[in-house]
Amino acid sequence: MAGEEFRFASENCAARRFAWMGKYFKVFDIGLQNTFVYRWNFFFRSLFGLFPLLGTVFIWRAIFDAKGGGINNFNYASVVYYFLLVLVLDNLITPGDDEWQVAADIRDGQMNAFLIKPVNYLVYRLALFVSNRLLYTLVTLPVVIIIFTVFHRYLVWPSSWAIWVLTVISVVLAGLLQFLIAYSVALFAFWMLEISTVVFIIYSFEYFLSGHMFPIGLMPPSIQTVLKFLPFPYELYFPIAIFMGQVHGVELWAGLLIQFCWVLIIALGANTLWQQGLHRYQAVGG
Asked: Would you say 256 and 170 are in contact if contact means Cβ atoms under 8 Å apart?
């Protein structure tokens, strides 16, 4: 009798788990459909986005020609390779307009629809984020293939399968980090009518300190040491550095640990903002 009750409870628990997962897979599917509508916008955006990349390549060529040698662990070929990887990773994990959509849900009162349903809003937004980024990457893949073909002589693929695995892990953590930061910034809409100033400030730090503008490895060692304990390098630079073989051994594992810790810290911060924001939202009759 006790065995049958245990089996029934286990089956019931499994059924609820599958129902929970199926709900967010449906959200993922809806996200794919909504993103697919804008496929040509994404394609042409990525196509014309190559012009800044080409400009960056020419600028760095002039810098290395003037210097007559490499800088730290980088030379012209590795810098070109770095920015090609930035292009791919930026397409894959950088949020689009997620923060604006969250802020609009709060500001326009659309959050009420989620509060009365058995939906975890964070997981809901994460499912939409993943679907958007995956489809965006697929749509822009032809452009990426073309640019990689043009610069194929600068490509140096890792020979170790371990580097590929560690890079994938770091990319997943970097994607979560970028998403959680965007989500947390958007939650300020509970207290602010307009979050554009906060978004601009945070993204200015991200663009400069994540390695989007230039490789962090070109900075002085003292600045690199400080940045290792901030979240920004782990949004973009760190997974690329792993893939390029710029970090090894203890430094690599320590970096992954710090990256994971920042994901947890910002997730906890986002949950705190959500709970406090809901109290205010409900208090003012949202």
From this structure: yes
Maximum average pLDDT range among 69-78, 126-135, 207-216, 230-239? 230-239
Determine the Cα–Cα distance for residues 102 and 116; give it in Å rounded to an integer. Answer: 17
Name the band, by pLDDT with cuts 50, 70 and 90, for residue 195: confident
- Measured distance CA(251)–CA(258) in Å, rounded: 10
As given in the structure block, the two tokens for residue 110 are 């659309």
Query: 256 and 173 in contact (C-beta within 8 Å)?
Result: yes
Asked if 135 and 32 count as a contact pair (C-beta separation under 8 A), the reply is yes
Q: What is the pLDDT of residue 279?
A: 82
Q: How far is 94 from 170, CA to CA, in rounded Å?
A: 14
Tell me which DSSP letter residue 73 carries: T
Q: What is the mean pLDDT of the chain?
A: 82
Rounded to an integer, what distance in angstroms lies between the CA atom of residue 124 and that of residue 21?
11
Using only C-alpha atoms, what is the Rg of the chain?
Answer: 22
- The residue assigned the tokens 């020609």 is 65
Domain residues of the chain, as ranges?
A: 33-283
In 3D space, the residue among 31, 215, 174 whose CA is nearest the CA of residue 91 turns out to be 174
